Amino acid sequence: MNALPAGVNRLITLLLGAVFIVVGAAAITWELKVQFVRDQLDKIDLSWFDRTPDQSWWLYVLIGIAVVGILLGLLLLGMNSRPRKTGSVVLPGSDETGTLSVNPSKIANAVADDLERHRLITSTRSRAVDDRKRKMLEITVEAESDRDFADIVEIVGKAEQQIAAALPGSEIRPRFQIHLSTPKKSVRVD
Questions:
Q1: Which pairing describes strands 101-102 and 89-90: parallel, antiparallel, or unpaired?
Q2: How far is CA 44 from CA 37, 41, 47, 163, in A?
Q3: Range(s) for CATH 3.30.70.1350 in the chain?
Q4: Which CATH fold would you assign to the domain 89-181?
Q5: What is the percent of the chain where pLDDT is above 90?
Q6: Distance between CA 117 and CA 47 in Å, rounded?
């Protein structure tokens, strides 16, 4: 998750948490019969809650709250579900004479294609993402569960070393996920 969505999520969580703490503390102190809290709550005009739904403006307030809630919900969904794609990454060695840059998704695709050619690996998926300001190559490797896991880890480790050798000092970090699937049963044809 990028910094902006993470910050907004944390702010909303902080505000909701503060509201829940205040309401919970008021309820607890009411049950404990704390006189100061009871005095403050007694100052609230309870008949207001009975009169308000009959007011002409009440329907518009409810519609406004619903619209703001829907828009806020859509905004949060959009912020949290948007692709976290990365742009080009400037490589070490760039100077005033020129800039060396690389597209991380092309590197991820090349590594995944190379891994997929190996006999132990069934398929691969790859993507480049920006995860909290860290450029990541996410590569998912799928193999059948009857394969030796240590051999698969060794193959993935070599791919990781190749990425590090190709991009020395770069901010790009690989993240490999290994999924083992059930071997496919052979279909008998009569």
A1: antiparallel
A2: 11, 6, 9, 66
A3: 89-181
A4: Alpha-Beta Plaits (3.30.70)
A5: 16
A6: 75
